Amino acid sequence: MAGSAQLTLQSKIKLRSGYEMPLVGLGVFQNATCIPACEAALKHGYRHIDTAQMYRNEADVGIAVRKSGIPREEIFVTTKVIQGSHGYDSALGVVEESLSKLGSPYIDLYLIHSPLSGKEKRLATYRALLEKRDAGKIRTVGVSNYGVKHLEELREAKLETPAVNQIELHPFCQQKDIVEYCNKNGIVVQAYCPLVRGDFSSPVLQEIAKSTGKNPAQVLVRWSLQRGFIPLPKSANPERVVSNVDIFDFVLSDADIAKLDALDKGKAGRDQLEPRRCTVK
C-alpha cells in the first residue's frame, strides 16, 4: 500500500473484521454544517466519512449519504462514543442513537472515542460494542486515542483485538510506540489531524511542496498514505475537500519521506489528546 503509485480515492484496506475500508476519509470534526462538505466529498469520489457522537453532526452525515444517491453499502461511515457515555448500558443506547441519527441499519466502524472514562467503563463499553457488532448493528469495532497500555488492557481482559486505532498523526506527531504496537498486532492506524490544523509553516514542508508541484496539505496526506496510515483530512470548504485528495498522481521520494519523518517533535508536536496521560484506573 505505502509506496504504490496505483492508489486511487476508492482504494481500500481489508480490516481484521473481514470488511474493507477506503484508504482516505473525510473528517467532519468542528463542522456543525457538514452537509456541503460531505456532498462535495461524495460527488468527487470519497467513500469514507468520519463523524462522532461528540461532533453533533451524525444526522447531517446521514442526510448527505442519502442525498448522494450512492448505495449505502458503498459508503464507509465511522462514528464514536464519547467518554461521558461510556458504560455497558449507556453505550448500547448510544449505538442505537447513532443508527437513528445516521438513518442507517448499520454502522461500518464504531470507535471508543477516548480512554478517559477509566478501565472499568472502557472495558464495559468495548463489550457493548462487540455485542452490537454480533447483533449486526456494527460491522467493525475499534478504538481512538488508545495508547499501548490501553490496547494491552484489552488483551489482558481476553477481549478481541480492535480492528482500528485512530490517533493524531502527522510528521510533527508520529506516536511511534503506538504505531509500532498496532502494526505488530494487525491494528489499522487511522490518522486524525493529518493537516496539522493548517499550520504549513515548516520550511521542509514548503520545500517538498514546491519540488513536487503540490500544496502542503496534499504532501501531508500523501505522507500519511505512504507511511501506511489512513488519513482523515477535514475541511468545511468544498473546494479544499476536493483539493486535499488530489494526491494520486505523484509519489513522495524516499528522501522526501525521510525529511518529513525527521520533523517529529514527540510530545511537543501533539495538538490533541495524549494517550499516555489517560490514567488506567
Topology:
Layout: E1 12-14, E2 20-22, E3 26-27, H1 35-44, E4 48-50, H2 58-68, E5 76-81, H3 88-102, E6 107-112, H4 119-134, E7 138-144, H5 148-156, E8 164-168, H6 176-184, E9 188-192, H7 203-212, H8 216-226, E10 230-231, H9 238-243, H10 254-261
Parallel strand pairs: 3-4, 4-5, 5-6, 6-7, 7-8, 8-9, 9-10
Antiparallel strand pairs: 1-2
Helix pairs in contact: 1-2, 2-3, 3-4, 7-8
Question: Can you give a write-up of this model?
Answer:
The protein has 281 residues and is of the alpha/beta class. It is 37% helix and 15% strand. It has ten helices and ten strands. The chain has an eight-stranded parallel beta sheet with strand order 3-4-5-6-7-8-9-10. A two-stranded antiparallel sheet has the order 1-2. Strand 3, helix 1 and strand 4 form a beta-alpha-beta unit. The termini are far apart.
Task: Give descriptors for this structure.
single chain, 281 residues, alpha/beta, eight-stranded parallel beta sheet, two-stranded antiparallel sheet, 10 helices, disordered C terminus
